[in-house]
Design a protein that fits this description.
alpha+beta; globular; Transferase(Phosphotransferase), domain 1; 7-stranded antiparallel beta sheet; 11 helices; about 425 residues
Amino acid sequence: MAAPTAHPEGTVLEGRYRVDGVIARGGMSVVHRGSDLRLDRPVAIKVLDRELAADPAFVRRFEREARAAARLAHPGIVAVHDQGRDDDGTVFLVLELVEGGTLRDVLREQGRLHPAAALTVVEQVVTALQVAHDRGLVHRDVKPENVLVGSDGAVKVADFGLVAAAWEAGAEPGDPEESGELVLGTVAYLAPEQVTDGRADERSDLYATGVVLFELLTGVPPHGGDDAVEVARRHVHVDVPPPSGLAGGIPKALDRLVAAATRRDPDTRLADAEAFLAAARGVRMDADLPFLTVPPPRRRRGANGSRPLRGTRLLDLEPEAPAPPRGRRPPVVEDDGDDWDDEPWVDGEVDEPDDVVDDAPSTRRRRGPDDPVDDIDVAIEQIERRRARSRSRRLLAAWLLLEAIATIAAGAAGWGLGFPG
């Protein structure tokens, strides 16, 4: 799917919301600064990609998730003010505009946080998740880019519902286009069950929060790799290490909290947000850590570079034909998330498009939440071959473009020489 295009500035949606400049771009939407003309207040307007807006299954799920997210009235959650569909087919969300930055911006400035500040942030994130989980809403994409730090120091969780809508619309039965095996999320924070089964529940959010805590304490995510496939494989097969092994000054009690939140088997993980909060408060008491707030970032950085493996991703584990009797094609990575790249709401950079595969058959079968994946390791070589083919096609296209430009330039020069000065 092509990247969403920005809406023209000055457009008024549903006669009420004026669209202003772009503050974020992603694989599924573009976010604009805007104005609610009726209430005379600034807002953020998330405009869905037109291709998604033309999909009735997606829009139906999106509207349902928007209604659910709008009921999450909590100071730790970015408020959803409205949802609409303009006469031209534009589908959009109207959100609270948060002045400040994201937890990613804080990490860029500070490298890592003091253990007391890291624990404070995570407690606030889990409190927000508990409100959502109590209402049956799973975030599915907890990461530093989706944790906002306001100019007043308030911590807010953003972007409930969009990933869930994309997954559930994709899993809708009876749609011939909806068949493959898809996992939505950000690969650096994916829980093992999201990789292997496409399954996400409250414990998946807690796993991602544990990974965020590890990163706040150490400055890096726990699992690295050359590509998204390798990182996803490590989530499935390798335990998150103790953060004190990478950075000094981290109490062992925080090591234990990270381990409890990121156990690979969800049945042995912290059971729910309430259990996470109880454990975090126990750590605070055991390690004598004060409640230490995080100041908002002093400056924001646009998404001019690439920060691999941090954009919301679509992992495609579709089998090739003929498929082997056991095992499936490894995840193919495609950007599918919001890249908040300017003020006031900033998210991480999207990945380079090396992993995008656009030649999948249109009749692929999407994996349902309960369908197992035997082993994500069995076809690493296949994806590498596909990447090589993709790179070759891009190189050929670039060469042909240069040839065309050179031909046009030569023709223009000859045409110019045919006239007297």
